[in-house]
Design goal:
Number of helices: 6
CATH architecture: Up-down Bundle
Distance between the termini: 42 Å
Pfam family, one: HSCB_C
Radius of gyration: 16 Å
Keywords: Chaperone
InterPro entries: HscB, HscB_C_sf, HscB_oligo_C
Family: Belongs to the HscB family.
Organism: Durusdinium trenchii
Largest sheet: none
Helix content: over 70%
Structural class: mainly alpha
CATH class: Mainly Alpha
Number of domains: 1
Length: 135
């Protein structure tokens, strides 16, 4: 399964006998466009609980990493500073996506949960970066 490529995702799910059926076509498209939502959906299809908003985050290293980058984002004064942070974060997201593809193939759900948790934190940080405006 290629988590970051839609064309690789659906055939693998079909091969596994899983039906891709969120309620509405718009929801299906949103899930396919978002690596985080695809990962969460795949975990749910396989009966695995995903990190909910109120659950405790277990990946303290990622939490510290995100907090540090968040502080850098708050201190950023120029778009080029934010672009550098965005590029660095995007690389981390792509790395997690790659890891998840392999982890899902091996059905290592505990590791997958931790990687999805990391992906969730990095994705939220990326969204903050995308919304950044000079002060």
């Amino acid at each position: 399964m290629v988590l970051h490529a839609v064309h690789g995702l659906l055939p693998w799910w079909k091969h596994q006998g899983q039906a891709f059926q969120p309620s509405f076509p718009a929801t299906q498209a949103a899930v396919l466009r978002s690596p985080l939502r695809r990962a969460q959906y795949w975990m749910e299809l396989n009966g695995q609980k995903i990190l909910l908003e109120e659950q405790r985050i277990e990946d303290m290293q990622t939490m510290m990493e995100v907090m540090e980058t968040s502080e850098e984002l708050d201190a950023a004064k120029t778009q080029s500073e934010v672009d550098g942070l965005r590029q660095r974060n995007r690389s981390k997201i792509e790395s997690v996506e790659s890891e998840l593809s392999e982890i899902f193939k091996h059905e290592d759900w505990m590791t997958a949960r931790h990687r999805v948790e990391r992906l969730q934190m990095l994705t939220r940080l990326q969204e903050r970066m995308d919304d950044w405006r000079p002060k």
